[in-house]
Specification:
With 675 residues, the chain is mainly β. The protein is built from no helices and 56 strands. It is 0% helix and 45% strand. The strands form 16 sheets. Strands 1, 2, 4, 5, 6, 8, 12 and 15 form an eight-stranded antiparallel beta sheet that branches.
């Protein structure tokens, strides 16, 4: 079975003034033929040619004006006061009823006079009313459908207790609930695929799909709708089928039913004669008619225009504004923006390239828009400042600036104090700024060369400036001068309008010299002895008994040795007498060495003439930190610690050793490292 429109069911509401003269294939279409007049409800067996769809339980009703019954007579029937649509008789059925979980339907069924011819168009029509049934629980529904079939359908095969809906999709169904005390005639065009021979009327929809109107239950859980039927007809007619919708520029194919001759019209204008099939390419939506004798049928070909999205020309907006991009097309199916959005209309505020692809009913279209965002103009000349002698100040603004002297250069170099201002504007606004330039003075700062002061003395460091200035010394004081009594590196920062100046000075405190050549001593004559006499003092000069001026003196002969040491803070002297004797074991430690790669006195260690059975030596700095240690009597310290040179100064050594035939000896002393 098929409908004239393969894409959707097609129905027409038609008020017919007279029936067509073509043969009606419905037996007893107005229910005027009967075996006897009805006295009670459930009188469907009295009607010739009609059944209740093979069910012995459900009972459609027969009404006739000739009946004297107050339930089956007309116009006063059991459920409504209603007159026939034509002649004297009508039939009625329960289109919908529920009572608790029970669903109830009634159907009318007839066998057509002759089977339908496949491919031939038939106009199927019937008159319907529900009489605006007054007593609850009745109301309106869309429970009226028509099913044409090659074989009879039976309600015995469907529903609980064989009273439920026949679960077959009808060829036509009321789209909306019927709630009218009068009659309405409904018709539709039907083109069978097979020789259908049976027509069934009723509600084929399940309860959930049945639309309801003014249904209320007087009994809890009881709801119902009743439908009256009259004048059912199935009549051969002319019909047009074919393409419903095309894209502009495409071709639609239309066909007419029944035998020739045909006369085709397009929007009322003659198109073709004596052809059953036509191909058309309308530019706009067009209605085509075909005329055969007194029959006319029409078919509208809807033309979808080839519309394309238009985002408009590239444009510019001001910062903070937004713009709406509308890619909507009447027949757009999907929208794909560059950021993944899928809406036809988007609102944007960021600069960039916006692109949309539209999947259209007739193709694939796209458009692109470049959006620029213009910021309101800005001009920042900076804070008021001071211009020092010989300095310049460069003011920079974007193009289009107008200065107070009406010049328009975006870069302006200033050399004089004064008030300066500029203004700039664009389509998004204007801005102005000003700057005041003061005249400033440069600072003169010199703390002098690094210097020495004697212990107990003081020096005044002077960073004072003419005019306003701020001072910050390294010790946190903020005056122009600083009294110094201790050795240190002193720095000062002077801030004026013209900038920041810094200077520093190293102040060392010098003590009067102290020298100690040690106690008078004996050396082993048989060991070719030599004793290094150390008189080293920082920032000092030296004078030995023989006129030597070095800080270290090598005494290789017995005798009386003297040295005078002097510096800026004092003078001192010392002497030592050295005698010689014969020794069986000689162990000597020098009191100074100079690891300066000159090949003389490069290391410090024991000088011995005998063998030891055990040996341990440790060297400390002046603060008691261990520098090196060794159990090797031949070890010589090179003045280094952890890969780096140790500073000049006095170091302490301790040694513990044992020689054959002698007790263990522990001794210590100091050694001076200088470079």
């Amino acid at each position: 079975m098929k409908n004239i429109n393969p894409s959707k069911w097609f129905f027409l509401l038609i008020f017919l003034p007279a029936w067509t003269s073509a043969q009606n294939l419905v037996t007893n279409p107005g229910f005027e033929q009967y075996s006897s007049l009805p006295d009670l409800l459930s009188g469907w067996p009295l009607v010739s040619g009609w059944t209740n769809a093979g069910n012995g339980i459900t009972t459609p009703d027969y009404y006739h004006q000739g009946s004297t019954s107050n339930v089956a007579g007309l116009p006063n029937s059991q459920f409504a006061r209603i007159f026939p649509f034509a002649d004297s008789a009508i039939m009625g059925y329960y289109a919908y009823e529920t009572l608790g979980t029970i669903s109830y339907r009634e159907y009318l069924q007839t066998r057509l006079i002759t089977p339908l011819v496949p491919g031939v168009a038939y106009r199927v029509s019937l008159a319907l009313s529900n009489g605006k049934t007054i007593p609850p629980p009745f109301g309106g529904t869309n429970g009226a459908g028509v099913l044409l079939s090659a074989a009879p359908v039976s309600q015995n095969s469907y529903g609980p207790a064989f009273t439920g809906p026949i679960n077959i999709s009808p060829d036509w169904n009321l789209p909306e609930p019927l709630w009218d005390s009068g009659w309405q005639v409904f018709s539709f065009i039907y083109i069978p695929d097979v020789p259908d021979e049976y027509l069934t009327i009723g509600n084929f929809l399940p309860d959930t799909a049945t639309k309801k109107y003014h249904i209320s239950g007087s009994i809890p859980g009881h709801f119902a709708s009743y439908m009256y039927v009259d004048e059912v007809s199935v009549v051969p007619t002319i019909a047009v089928s074919g393409t419903d919708t095309i894209c502009a520029g495409d071709t639609a194919y239309l066909s007419a039913t029944l035998a020739p001759s045909w006369h085709w019209l397009a929007s009322g204008h003659a198109l073709a004669d004596s052809v059953q099939h036509i191909a058309v390419s309308p530019a706009t939506t067009t209605t085509y008619q075909v005329i055969r004798g007194n029959d006319t049928a029409s078919h509208t070909v809807f033309v979808i225009p080839l519309e394309k999205p238009d985002l408009g020309p590239d444009t510019t907006i001001c910062m903070g504004e937004s713009i709406t991009l509308n890619a909507s097309l009447d027949f757009g199916l999907q929208y794909h923006w560059q950021d993944g959005s899928s809406f036809p209309v988007v609102t944007v505020s960021q600069a960039g390239t916006y692109h949309v692809d539209v999947v259209h009913a007739c193709g694939f279209f796209s458009d692109t828009l470049n959006l620029s965002v213009l910021s309101p103009p800005e001009i920042q000349l900076g804070a008021d400042t001071t211009l020092c002698p010989g300095e310049t100040l460069t003011l920079t603004a974007t193009s289009g600036v107008v200065w107070e002297d009406f010049s328009r250069d975006s870069i302006r170099i200033l050399t004089h104090p004064g008030l300066y201002y500029g203004q700039i504007q664009n389509a998004c606004g204007f801005a102005t700024d000003s700057i005041f330039i003061r005249r400033g003075l440069a600072a003169s700062l010199d703390l002098g060369n690094d210097t020495l002061i004697c212990e107990g003395e003081a020096i005044i460091l002077d960073a004072g400036q003419d005019g306003e200035a701020a001072y910050l010394w390294s010790d946190g004081s903020d005056g122009p001068t600083l009294l110094v009594t201790r050795p240190d590196i002193y720095s000062v920062r002077v801030t004026t309008y013209c900038g920041v100046w810094r200077d520093q000075i190293t102040v060392n405190v010098l003590s009067p010299p102290e020298v100690n050549l040690g106690n008078d001593t004996l050396l082993c004559e048989d060991r070719n002895p030599a004793l290094l006499l150390n008189a080293y003092q920082p920032f000092s000069s030296y004078l030995w008994q023989d006129g030597s001026t070095k800080p270290i003196y090598e005494a290789s002969l017995p005798g009386y040795y003297t040295v005078t040491v002097s510096n800026a803070c004092g003078i001192t002297s010392d002497e030592i007498t050295i005698n010689y004797e014969l020794c069986d074991c000689y162990i000597h430690f020098p009191n100074a060495f100079s690891p300066n790669e000159d090949g003389i006195n490069e290391t410090f260690g024991a000088i011995m003439s005998c063998r030891t059975e055990s040996w341990s030596m440790v060297i400390f700095d002046r603060w008691g930190k261990k520098i090196v240690s060794s159990e090797n009597p031949d070890y010589q310290w090179d003045g280094r610690f952890k890969g780096g040179d140790c500073p000049e100064g006095v170091y302490v050594w301790k040694v513990r050793y044992h020689t054959p035939g002698h007790p263990i000896v522990e001794k210590g002393g100091t050694v001076t490292l200088f470079r």
